[in-house]
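Z., the sequence and structure:
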Amino acid sequence: MKEFSSAYDLRRAFGFRWSRRVMPTVLRELMRHESIETTMKYYVGVNAEATADELWAAVGDNSGVAVETEGSVASVKGR
């Protein structure tokens, strides 16, 4: 376990937290990325699992529902 945090750790934590609250273009500006691709690669989509969990919690338990993800179909159980 780390005993200290670097400036990079703090920057990454800032970007991660704000990625859930603002649009990618706004986050790009906050992070001062030259390219939106950098923002998208490191911060947007990283939260997909947490977002999916929130969505499933909002719609309730739909055990066995088939979900299409990026061109393939996955069976979701226990959600």
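The chain has one domain: 7-76. Residues 7-19 form the longest helix (13 residues).

Let me know what you think.
H.
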